[in-house]
Every structure is written in C-alpha cells, then in structure tokens.
C-alpha cells in the first residue's frame, strides 16, 4: 500500500524555540538568511488578556498542488507517496510556483538558483525510513510524522486523539501538514 | 484596542517570499535531486554532551567527510531521545565560524585597542609564566584571580589556582544560581530536583524553561503543561512562553513574588492546611514561621504584587488539595531584587509545608551511585572519584572575604562573588590584585556595572582570556588563548544522576581546528613552566578518566561509545511506596533498610546544623538578624524610578556567548526593549524608536518594541546583546546591554547579582 504521510504540529507542545528551523538549515544546507521552515510566534490580545500562538511556516505538502499545476517544466512534482519535490535539473527559476503557492513556502535558492522549499527531507531522510530533521530534534515532541495508514504509528495515534486543523483548508489544497490548535490563553477568534 | 506582533520583530524571519525580488532568473544548474552534499553518507557518529549553554544536554554528532554535519539529541539518554534545542543544533556553526579565534595572540597596542601579535602557544605560555612569576614574587600568588563558568573547565582552573597558591577563584554562580544554592543549604542541607512529569500542580515563578532550555526538563514541563492532569500557574511580569502555556498567568510586579508566597504560607498556617506529620517529623522552626507570616494575608499581598487576594486564597487551597504531588518552583536565575534570598527560602519552605519531599510529582534528592548502593546493600552502579581530590582549597583571605564573617559569610570559597572584583582591584583592598586568568567567561557582558569592571581591568598587569570568540573581555586581555570547543575535546566523567544513577562523558567529535588547545592542556603547560606540574596525579585526559572510573574499563568503554550511561536502576523516591516496592523487588537485599511503613524515609539525611529541614535557621539569624525565617522584606525594586528593567533568556542565545554564531545570529541578532503600549503613549515613543534607558549606574541605548505582553511599569530585554567587540562582526553594535544599568549592590545573605533595577526613559 502506498504511504500516506502526515506531519502533525501540536501548537500546544510547541515552544517556538526554532530548533526545527536550525536542524532544517543544517540538514538541507539552506543558504544563510533564508528559511525553509520557521515557527512564527504571534501574541494577541490586550494586557493582561493574551494568547500566544506558534505557527509552523513551511510547505504543507498539498494533495491538490497549485505549484505542480503551474510548473511549466515538470520540475515541481509529487513523489508516488505524494510528497511535493523540486527537480533542480528541470527548474528554470521562472517563479510561477512561488507566486502560485498560497502558503508562501517557496523561494529562490541563491546558490542553486532553483525554486526551493521544505521537502519533508524526502530524499535524504524519509525515503531511508528516518523522520524529517525538524521532527527528529523537536525538544518537546510537538512534531509527529509518519504513515497515517499504519495504525501502529505515532502519527496515527496522534491524529486519532487530537482535533486536527489543516492550514487554509478552504482552498481545497488538502495539505499533509496538520495542526493541533492552541488551547491556552484568551480567545480572540 | 488590540495589538499583534509576530516574532518577526525580533527573529530575523526573512520571509520565504521576501527574497524573490532580489534573485535573478537563471537557467537551472546541473545536479541531481537533493544533491550529494546534502545526503552524503554519515562516516561516523559521536555521542557526547553539549556546551552551547550550561544545561549540558546529551547529544549525538554526525560527521561526514571529517566535518560535523548534524547534531541531534543522544538517544541513549531517555530524557533526551533525539531532541536538541536551536543552540545545541548550532554547535557546528560555532565550530566552523570563520570569526572564531584559532591562534594565540599577545597584545601589542594599548589595552583594549585591538592590536595583536599572533604567537605560538609556546611563546604565549612563556610570556604568561614569566609575568606570573614576576607578579607572584612581588605581590604573592593571591594577587592572581582565576575564573570560569562552572563545569569541567572550572574544575581544572580551580585546581590550578589551588596549586598555584591563590585563594581567589570565581565561578559564574554569584551572577546566576547562588540564591537557590545557598537557600537549599540553609533549608534542606542540599539541592533538590523537581518531578514535573507527575505533578498535579505546578506554581512557577518565572522559571522560563521554554526559553532557558534544558531539553529533558523542558520536555517534561511541556508535556505537563499540555496535560489535563496538571495545572500550571505562572507568575511573571512578562507574557513569556511559559506564561503562554499556563492555565493561569499573573503579571506580578517585579521583585514582589515574596509577598505572594508569604500569603500562601499564611493561608496554609491560618487554616491548618499543611502536612503536620511531615513538619513535626522532619523540620524545626514552624512556630517562628507562624509568627513571621501572621500578617502576610492575601489582602496584604494584593497591594504589593497586584494579584487579587482571592487568587492567592484559591491557589493556596488548590495547591493544598494537590499536595504532595505539587511543585512550587524556585526557578533558575530568578533574581529580582534585594528580597531574592527571602523569596527563594519562602518557596522552599512552602514546599516543606506541602510534604512533597521524595513524593511523585514533588521534590527529590538526586540518587547517586553511592546512595543506591548503600540502600541495595550491594554495588548496583559504579562510584566515580576525583583525581584532583587531594588538592585542597587555599584557606587564605579572599578578596571578597567569602566564608568570613560579613556579607559573604555563606558564599563558598569555590564560587566567590564576581561583583566584588572591581572594588577590590580599584581599592587594592584587602590586598593588591594584579592578574586575572579566565576561561569561558565574559564578565564585561554578564556582570553588573560593566563600566566599573572595565575600569578595574585597566589597572591589571596581566589578563589572560581563553575563549572561542574575541569577546569584550578578550579585547581587554594581554594574552588571548583560543579555546578548543566542546566538540574538539575529550573530558572526564560527569555525574548526572536523577531518580537513578547516570553518568555522561564528553567525547571529542573532531580534531581541534588549527590545533587549538583545551584548557586542561593550557593549564598543564603553564604548570610545567611554573614548576607546579608534580602536584597532578594524571597526565592526559585518558589518564584522568581512568582514575575517575577507578579502572572500570567497561564503564569507560560504554561512555566513550554512548556518551551517557545509566544502569537499569529503577527510579527511586524514598517516600513513594510504588517506587520503593519496585526497587526492593529488583534488589531484595534492600529490604533490610525498609522502615516499619515499608518506605526508605530513614534514608533521608539533611546536612543542616540541626540535621532537620530548617524552616528557621539559627545560623542565618545569627549572621543576618531577621533573616532566619522567611519573612517580609523590602520588595521595592524601582527605588523611585518610573520603570523596572528586567531581563531573561531566549531559546536562541546563551548569556554573553552565542550572539555572534551564524545560525543563531540569523534567527536573532538584536534585543529591542519591550514596552507596553500605555507606556509608549505616555513617553511619546513608538515601535522602532531609539531611546535611552538611564539610572544612577549608567545610560544605555535601546530600540523600542511595543507589545501588550508586558506590564506598563516594566521593561524587558533578552540578555547578552549590546556587544562592543568589533571582532564580533555580526553582533557588534546591536541591541542593549542590561549589565550597564545594574548595580554592584548584592542581595543580602546570598550575595546574588540583582538583575531587576529602576530606570527612566529618555529620548535619543
């Protein structure tokens, strides 16, 4: 059976420490001052009624992929397990994908000159049975990754016990990155 | 009104999209999908422990083609698993930083002028030895100061100082954990640990484990905070990350936490809601506490802390209901003001009243090999020893008079008081100080009133600084010796026992860049030149380790391979039945040590003068009348100034050390001062404005960051910025150094550096 990958970011466990971001830079040789992944910390409210949300900002691995759809050369593609990748041999840096991505997850890598983004560490880790670098290092276990078809997996258990929210779900892109929304603090929804 | 901020304001979160405009459209380069540089095979993996901060978490370093390529947690340590923080994951960014020091240098210009001659290690050692001999001939060995942050480096430099004959050894402790070190001595006769995982209630006084990260503790607290079974209540003037994860957050006025704790104690004693049996059996001085807290009502505290009386009443009752599975957390470097000692003592005593000692979800003593072997009546874990144990501390008068009657009577000769150094140098009292040798410390950023410290340094004849970077302090040196970082050196065994015995060992990951030397090599080279080398019983680190392990090669092999070793000993809490039963089941020979009620409570030993937990300390009362028991104390920090400037840790940097490290600087390069919108309006300042923070100690520039996440009477900066060394090219000139505003006055009894102080705002 094909793998159905999910990454779950539990905003309640996340402390915004950026260990994920550094591990990503280290693993994927992300050029200086650019980021494939960050956790943005947002505080809302009026003192002392506040809340702080931890928002993972990276490629969300859409099922219905605007970036792949617009790519004129086929450089942006989905693996058979549905993880969106960029083939540098085919990328012509036209930036269509960057504009098409509703998650602002892509950028031009000034070293390779290609479109670049989070890959879920597909070729360097996941395809070898390892977790993505960000998941491996997370100090508070806020990130869980795996095959959701596997009922013995951590990600299956996490999905079952949590309320999952998908980023910009209304766009119908069907992301493989899900969030467990923050329960703490004063609500300003 | 609602305001929002994103961490973009202090994280350099160059948005993924923001850079598109700057790049050109070029044809794709040849290369395969995720090219080989990225997924080159790991050639080796080394298990060791981190030194990007003092938490010293166990890590695993992957080496590809001779270079460290990825750092993650050491899976052999259960508390870590593969987790690591941003700083730990950036270790190789420091290791390979081209702004790192890699060559010894001798000053050729004026002190602090940044003019140097690159020399060989041999030449540098000759120079230092010659100067030290001259200074010692004229002023005695005590004229040379030695300092380091605690850790194995500190142990080596302290040993050297003792051999050299100087009593003047300083750790960083007086600027950091000295209060709880001393308060624990006075209360329990030793330090305790916290069992966050099983606590039903945690009352946290600004213990920001989510920004001052120690991975295994942080992980436990994160899960506890997220659990329905645990209630977390946080008091902090600022909406910190830990405050944001709390069930309740109270923005307490800085420096007044003591009043809140005293009101809890008042409620418990008023209503008889405390563990009377525990107090009766294990403690002395409850009657003195009843007397000292008879007026410290919830209502009384309200006007001091700003927290409503009913909150204190309710929290006191909730904690009592959760007891003994509760933690009233004394925090880490919680220094607020002059009331620090009394606050910490009050917190420790509050725990005593809840009877949470050696209970699940409460407090416990570390279970080292020696203790568990004694209980089990057999050797279940190896005991290690100190190869330098025969070298004793010099008992001469220290420049800070530590251990002598007076302000520093409770300060150990090992740790000293850094804040007393400038006056001693400038006044030449009690005797002249002429030299300072230091490693892994940057007092011009981390110690109060750095202006005065700098003036004092100018008077010295010899300053030797061993560091990774050209710090502000290194700039003032006569000799700069580059430090072989923690990834480039082997070290001895460290005891990291928690509820069961465990050890870790630092293992070299790669050879030192440019053959930089370790502090132990540096000190031994100096010892040889000063004819002091025969005092040592070991020659190499391998020697040192073998002696530590008492020849236990199995232990050493395992530590060299895994970096961390535990011995399958079940977690033990002396007063928790299920833990005791588990232990006895595994080691039946332990049964002879059981109490009549089937516990190991008789194993509890309190190394206090009375042998009991001291709610009242005769010794403290004698030396500091009125301080023997937790009691009301001056909680005014502002001292007439309109605002209180506070500081704290970020998950991205450590003290005065990491601000220039590329990976970390990329994420955070500045520390704008947090200002509440009401304050901004009142002062007519806005986001991004340049202002001055000013008091009678100093005047320091700051950039305004307007945020709802702070009290209107309080300001906040992350520590370690405002760097002046021009050799720290990334960090130089950015942000605010709070040290320039801090006074050298110390907190009474514990001699702690006070890190919250009154300031006014003036426009730049």
TrEMBL record, chain A:
UniProt keywords (A-Z) are: 4Fe-4S, Iron, Iron-sulfur, Metal-binding, Repeat
Domain spans labelled 4Fe-4S ferredoxin-type: 5-34, 48-81, 82-111
Q: Which domain of life is it from?
A: Bacteria
Q: Which InterPro entries match?
A: 4Fe4S_Fe-S-bd, 4Fe4S_Fe_S_CS, ET_IronSulfur_Cluster-Binding
List the CDD domains hit by this protein, alphabetically.
Answer: PsrB
Name any one GO molecular function: metal ion binding
- What is the recorded name of this protein? Polysulfide reductase chain B
Organism, per UniProt? Halarcobacter ebronensis
UniProtKB/TrEMBL annotation, chain B:
User: Which InterPro entries does the record associate with it?
Assistant: Asp_de-COase-like_dom_sf (IPR009010), MoPterin_dinucl-bd_dom (IPR006657), Mopterin_OxRdtase (IPR006656), Mopterin_OxRdtase_4Fe-4S_dom (IPR006963), Mopterin_OxRdtase_prok_CS (IPR006655), Prok_Mopterin_Oxidored (IPR050612)
* Keywords assigned by UniProt, alphabetized: 4Fe-4S, Iron, Iron-sulfur, Metal-binding, Molybdenum, Oxidoreductase, Signal
What are the GO MF terms of this UniProt record?
4 iron, 4 sulfur cluster binding; metal ion binding; molybdopterin cofactor binding; oxidoreductase activity
Q: Which residues form the 4Fe-4S Mo/W bis-MGD-type domain?
A: 43-99
Instruction: Indicate yes or no for the key word 4Fe-4S.
Output: yes
The record's annotation in PROSITE patterns points to: 4FE4S_MOW_BIS_MGD (PS51669), MOLYBDOPTERIN_PROK_2 (PS00490), MOLYBDOPTERIN_PROK_3 (PS00932), PROKAR_LIPOPROTEIN (PS51257)
Annotated coiled-coil segments of the chain = none
What Pfam families has UniProt attached to this entry? Molybdop_Fe4S4, Molybdopterin, Molydop_binding
Q: Does the keyword Transit peptide apply?
A: no
Q: Which cofactor does it need?
A: Mo-bis(molybdopterin guanine dinucleotide)
Task: Check the record and name the PANTHER family matching this protein.
Answer: TETRATHIONATE REDUCTASE SUBUNIT A, TRIMETHYLAMINE-N-OXIDE REDUCTASE
Recorded family membership: Belongs to the prokaryotic molybdopterin-containing oxidoreductase family.
Q: What is this protein called?
A: Thiosulfate reductase PhsA
């Amino acid at each position: 059976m094909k793998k159905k990958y999910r990454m779950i970011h539990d905003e309640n466990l996340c402390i915004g420490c950026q260990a994920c971001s550094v591990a990503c830079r280290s693993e994927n040789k992300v050029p200086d001052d650019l980021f494939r992944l960050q956790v943005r910390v947002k505080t809302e409210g009026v003192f002392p009624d506040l809340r702080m949300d931890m928002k993972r900002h990276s490629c969300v691995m859409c099922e219905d992929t605007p970036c792949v759809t617009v790519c004129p050369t086929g450089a942006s593609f989905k693996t058979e397990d549905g993880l969106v990748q960029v083939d540098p041999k085919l990328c012509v840096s036209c930036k269509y994908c960057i504009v098409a991505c509703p998650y602002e997850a892509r950028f031009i890598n000034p070293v390779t000159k290609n479109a670049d983004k989070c890959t879920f560490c597909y070729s360097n880790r996941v395809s070898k049975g390892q977790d993505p670098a960000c998941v491996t290092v997370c100090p508070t276990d806020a990130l869980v990754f795996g095959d959701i078809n596997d009922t013995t997996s951590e990600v299956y258990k996490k999905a079952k016990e949590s309320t999952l929210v998908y980023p910009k779900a209304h766009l119908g892109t069907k992301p493989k990155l899900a969030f467990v929304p923050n329960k703490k603090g004063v609500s300003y929804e | 009104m609602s305001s929002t901020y994103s961490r973009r304001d202090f994280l350099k979160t160059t948005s993924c999209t923001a850079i598109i405009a700057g790049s050109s459209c070029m044809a794709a380069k040849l290369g395969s999908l995720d090219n080989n540089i990225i997924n080159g095979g790991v050639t080796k993996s080394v298990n060791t422990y981190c030194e990007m901060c003092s938490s010293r978490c166990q890590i695993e370093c992957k080496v590809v083609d001779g270079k460290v390529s990825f750092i993650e947690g050491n899976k052999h340590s259960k508390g870590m698993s593969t987790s690591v923080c941003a700083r730990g994951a950036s270790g190789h960014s420091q290791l390979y930083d081209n702004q790192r020091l890699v060559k010894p240098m001798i000053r050729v210009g004026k002190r602090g002028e940044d003019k140097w001659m690159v020399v060989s290690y041999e030449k540098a050692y000759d120079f230092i030895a010659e100067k030290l001999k001259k200074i010692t001939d004229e002023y005695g060995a005590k004229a040379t100061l030695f300092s380091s942050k605690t850790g194995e480096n500190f142990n080596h430099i302290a040993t050297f100082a003792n051999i050299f004959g100087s009593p003047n050894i300083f750790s960083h402790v007086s600027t950091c954990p000295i209060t709880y070190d001393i308060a624990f001595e006075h209360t329990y006769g030793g330090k305790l640990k916290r069992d966050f995982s099983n606590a039903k209630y945690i009352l946290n006084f600004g213990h920001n484990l989510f920004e001052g990260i120690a991975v295994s503790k942080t992980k436990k607290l994160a899960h506890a905070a997220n659990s329905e079974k645990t209630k977390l209540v946080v008091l902090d003037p600022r909406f910190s990350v830990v405050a944001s994860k709390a069930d309740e957050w109270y923005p307490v006025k800085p420096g007044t936490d003591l009043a809140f704790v005293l009101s809890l104690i008042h409620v418990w004693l008023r209503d008889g809601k405390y563990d009377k049996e525990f107090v009766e059996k294990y403690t002395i001085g409850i009657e003195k506490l009843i007397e000292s807290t008879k007026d410290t009502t919830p209502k009384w505290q309200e006007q001091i802390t700003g927290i409503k009386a009913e909150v204190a009443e309710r929290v006191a009752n909730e904690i009592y209901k959760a007891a003994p599975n509760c933690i009233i957390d004394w925090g880490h470097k919680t220094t607020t003001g002059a009331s620090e000692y009394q606050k910490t003592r009050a917190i420790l005593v509050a725990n005593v009243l809840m009877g949470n000692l050696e209970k699940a979800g409460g407090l416990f003593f570390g279970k080292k090999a020696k203790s568990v072997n004694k209980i089990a009546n057999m050797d279940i874990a190896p005991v290690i020893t100190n190869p330098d144990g025969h070298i004793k501390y010099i008992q001469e008068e220290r420049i800070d008079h530590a251990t002598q009657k007076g302000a520093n009577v409770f300060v150990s000769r090992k740790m000293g008081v850094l804040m007393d150094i400038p006056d001693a140098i400038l006044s030449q009292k009690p005797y002249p100080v002429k030299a300072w040798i230091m490693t892994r410390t940057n007092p011009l950023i981390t110690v109060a009133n750095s202006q005065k410290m700098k003036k004092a340094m100018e008077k010295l004849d010899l300053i030797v600084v061993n560091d990774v970077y050209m710090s502000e302090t290194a700039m003032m040196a006569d000799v700069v010796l580059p430090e072989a970082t923690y990834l480039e050196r082997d070290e001895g065994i460290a005891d990291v026992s928690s509820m069961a015995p465990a050890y870790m060992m630092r293992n070299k990951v790669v050879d030192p860049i440019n053959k930089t030397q370790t502090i132990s090599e540096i000190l031994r080279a100096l010892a040889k030149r000063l004819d002091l080398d025969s005092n040592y019983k070991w020659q190499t680190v391998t020697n040192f380790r073998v002696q530590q392990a008492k020849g236990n090669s199995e232990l050493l092999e395992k530590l060299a391979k895994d970096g961390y070793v535990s011995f399958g000993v079940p977690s033990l809490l002396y007063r928790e039945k299920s833990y005791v039963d588990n232990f006895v089941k595994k080691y039946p020979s332990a049964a002879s040590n059981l109490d009549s009620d089937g516990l190991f409570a008789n194993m509890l030993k309190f190394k206090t003068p009375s042998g009991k937990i001291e709610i009242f300390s005769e010794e403290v009362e004698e030396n500091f009348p009125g301080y023997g028991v937790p009691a009301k104390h001056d909680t005014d920090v502002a001292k007439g100034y309109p605002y209180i400037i506070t500081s704290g840790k970020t998950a991205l940097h450590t003290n005065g050390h990491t601000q220039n490290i590329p990976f970390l600087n990329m994420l955070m390069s500045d520390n704008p001062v947090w200002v509440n919108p009401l304050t901004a309006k009142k002062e007519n300042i806005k986001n991004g404005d340049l202002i001055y923070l000013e008091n009678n100690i100093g005047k320091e520039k700051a950039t305004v960051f307007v945020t709802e996440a702070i009290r209107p009477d309080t300001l906040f900066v992350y520590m370690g910025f405002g760097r002046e060394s021009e050799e720290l090219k990334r960090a130089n000139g950015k942000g605010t150094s709070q040290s320039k505003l801090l006074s050298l006055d110390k907190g009474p009894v514990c001699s702690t550096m006070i890190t919250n102080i009154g300031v006014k705002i003036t426009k730049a």
